[in-house]
Design goal:
Blueprint (H helix, E strand, L loop, with lengths): L11 H19 L3 E4 L3 E5 L2 H14 L5 H12 L7 E8 L7 H6 L8 E5 L3 E4 L1 E2 L12 E7 L2 H8 L4 E7 L2 E6 L2 H12 L3 H11 L2
Antiparallel strand pairs: 1-2, 2-3, 3-7, 4-5, 4-8, 6-7, 8-9
Helix pairs in contact: 1-2, 1-7, 2-3, 2-7
Length: 207
């Protein structure tokens, strides 16, 4: 997926004037990219539009204006984009009771070995988690992972195979079949059909 370039970023004044309209479009776009698995885990499949928004928001919130700092922020955000044969995901662990959050997160240590994407009825693709976001005693509530897809998995998705996210951690077991809008969006990503570019133009230019 094509990286976010410096010329894709709106200047601070222009972004400030359109920020609320852009936010509403991003919310609508993410509905077809976001999946809840059980009551605590939310998976967001990243694409150019979602990564662009994160970069734009970081530059806005941190009041970044220096050109070198802009490029450094873009480089970090672009690492979240999926490659040609994979899906990239931000996993949010959402816990309601702040007082018990640390204990609840500790109960999910090791989750990086217990998340998979199911393709059709016979393919299971384990998630590959980004290193450094958990230790033996501590787990971050934000995780990044990828699902590398071989030719067989990509062909099945292209042919319309159902997809599901499954978690089989000893302390958390849940499974969700991806709704059709999400499945179709991911199939378009893998087909390089230009859908991510079109979504970014809609969000950025029409707001």
């Amino acid at each position: 997926m094509k990286p976010i370039a410096r010329e894709d970023i709106i200047d601070r004044e222009g972004y400030g004037a359109r920020r609320q309209a852009i936010r509403q479009r991003v919310i609508a776009h993410k509905r077809a990219r976001r999946v809840a698995v059980g009551d605590r885990l939310t998976f967001l499949f990243e694409d150019r539009a979602s990564v662009w928004y994160q970069a734009q928001e970081m530059l806005w919130v941190e009041r970044v204006t220096a050109e070198e700092a802009n490029r450094e922020e873009l480089a970090v955000c672009n690492e979240m984009l999926p490659g040609a044969s994979e899906l990239s995901v931000t996993l949010l662990i959402e816990l309601q009771d702040q007082r018990q959050m640390a204990d609840d997160l500790r109960r999910l240590i090791g989750i990086d070995e217990h998340v998979a994407l199911e393709v059709g009825s016979d393919l299971r693709v384990p998630g590959r988690f980004e290193a450094g976001r958990q230790t033996a005693e501590k787990l971050s509530s934000v995780q990044y992972l990828r699902f590398p897809l071989d030719a067989r998995a990509r062909a099945a998705i292209s042919a319309g195979a159902p997809l599901a996210l499954a978690v089989d951690h000893p302390n958390y077991r849940a499974r969700t079949v991806l709704p059709e809008p999400v499945r179709a969006s991911l199939a378009a990503d893998l087909a390089d059909a230009g859908s991510a570019d079109a979504a970014l133009r809609w969000i950025r230019d029409d707001a």
